[in-house]
Amino acid sequence: GENVEQHPSTLSVQEGDSAVIKCTYSDSASNYFPWYKQELGKGPQLIIDIRSNVGEKKDQRIAVTLNKTAKHFSLHITETQPEDSAVYFCAAPRGGSARQLTFGSGTQLTVLP
Amino acid sequence: DAGVIQSPRHEVTEMGQEVTLRCKPISGHNSLFWYRQTMMRGLELLIYFNNNVPIDDSGMPEDRFSAKMPNASFSTLKIQPSEPRDSAVYFCASSLPPGYVHPNRNQPQHFGDGTRLSIL
User: Which of A77, A94, B1, B53 is the most exposed place for a label (fewest CB within 10 A)?
Assistant: First the structure.
């Protein structure tokens, strides 16, 4: 099955700086990589996803990059704001295009004002 | 648009009692997932339904756990009897069917706000 590792587990940045969170996966057949943001007391919310046929995707201040050769993908948040503070999770399918996802262990991002 | 709706939001009960968690997926979504989140184990998939049929229940911890989806708009996760180690946040998620052009194309999963379960 798929193994997803996520780093770092905690990240503190100054408001306005950039934040980068990295994940690696084990199954080279995996083709879909979502990122979720979870605020306290809430469920994970999809913020961006990328499919294996592209190397980068952007949505305003958020971007995701994918390196299929190295089997890793990263979340980039630019111009961070206090409301970006949350736990972020990456995920990958359990093999190829499986509907079931394996989640990373999460990154607690704190944006300091 | 209404998102995934879970009830109750919080449940506190004594060990040995039966617990039933409920989920209403987003209308039109044909896949439903139950997850459990704990500090120790993170976010774990318990069971996955497609078109109301359980497809993968390999994550269900033991026979005390059962899940049903009697129709496209309702699912339950039941624990009987409950134990303190079942204390966790339980999430339900749903997703659209794969596209007709790309039948193996994964669709985003949308999560509810969870049920925080405490077994005393």
Answer: B1
pLDDT in tens, B51-70: 999 999 999 988 999 999 99
Res B101 pLDDT > 70 = no
Nearest chain B CA: its distance from A98 CA (Å): 7
User: How far, CA to CA in Å, does A35 sit from each of A4, A38, A55, B64, B112?
Assistant: 12, 10, 15, 32, 16
String of b and e for A68-88 (b: at least 16 CB within 10 Å)?
Answer: eeeebbbbbbeebeeebbbbb
Residues of A in contact with B104 (CB under 8 A): 96-97
Residues of chain A with Cβ-Cβ distance to B111 below 8 Å are: 36, 43-45
Residues of A in contact with B95 (CB under 8 A): 99
Report pLDDT for B102.
60
User: What is the token pair recorded at B93?
Assistant: 């998620």
Instruction: Profile chain A (113 residues) by mean pLDDT over runs of 10 residues.
Output: 92 98 93 95 96 90 95 97 97 81 96 94
